[in-house]
Amino acid sequence: MIPHVPAQALSDLKIFAAYGVFLGSYLVFALGKFPGMKIDRPAAGIIGAVLMVAFRIILPVDALRFIDFSTVVLLFSMMLIVAYLHLAGFFDWITHLVVTRLKPHHLLPTVIFTSGILSAFFVNDIICLAMVPLVLTATRRLGVKPLPYLLAVATASNIGSVASITGNPQNMLIGSFSGISYGDFLRHLGPIALAGLLLDWLLIHLLCARAGRRDPVTDLPDPVEAVDRSRLVKPGVVVLMVIAGFLAGLPPALVAAFGAAIMLITRTREPRRVYDEVDWGLLVFFVGLFVIVGGAEKAGLTGRLLGFANHWNLHHPAAFTVVVAVLSNLVSNVPAVMLLKSLVPGLADPHTGWLVLAMASTLAGNLTITGSVANIIVVERSKDVAPISFREYFQVGLPITVATLVFGFLWLWLIQ
Question: What pLDDT sits at residue 302?
Fold first, then answer.
């Protein structure tokens, strides 16, 4: 016989369960994996979402309402578009044109601005995947040590991605929650990205000036010759159409989905190869995170955060910038944005608040290797040829993070 449980006690149990699921999930987000088990961030997102429904914190019919499908559609569509570009050889072609035909002293700024500008319009993680092997090839050809240039790929891809809604996953979230148009986002944060890339160039040049040289390797093949440029015509036209749609103020998710649909109409490209390029784990992570945060909000976490904001004066952009930067390094930038999104509408200037959230959560990713997925990709892709230690990265990441965050805050404070 099931004992009778008072309604208020049941409510308290639900709140306790909601906070337990939320804290447990965010612990995994912070550590990357659950201690002693093979539970990574996407798995924690699934488990947390299921527990929110299982404990009846969220009813099954309500769970879908917490998922922002426009963000999921935008992220998925951009992954498809970028996958077609990658498979067509676009990134190999464009990066080799500007990276491998240079003198050594031109290589650093070229790597920085190529990585940054491409990351401004495409998901920065994909840019890192494409750039790392090409930079390793270029440094072998020119006889320079690869460390400064690999650090340049990681930091510049993060900095460049701050410029637009499609630069990284957290910006996609913010674009959906805030309603800020693509053009408005670019006008406010584009200058921060540009100045940040200049600072990145200056600091890496100063900090890595003694990286040294080694003997060049001149007999490496040129992958540019292997790229069939006729296969770049359709993806190039679609990308231009999509970017034009973004800048015209059309709904980003609809524009990206339209572009992805055109890409899928093909007689030559096997769709399975495109699907293999999609980061399904990230999509699952997003869906689970929406439900987890929705359950925490229903349990009253939002109200507690608002009280915390008032107590610590998070309404001031400087304090908010610091909190966003710290939290983004503790739990990763996407979970940080999901956690803080409910605070922004209550700020004195929500428009500036959303921009600060995008700026700080992105630029804070340069602090450590684990600060962003882009950094991890660079380190993992290069570890067999040019391993990067935590210390080597941090020596460059710390000053770049501080310098770009200070400039970003000052810029948004001056133009508000």
Answer: 66
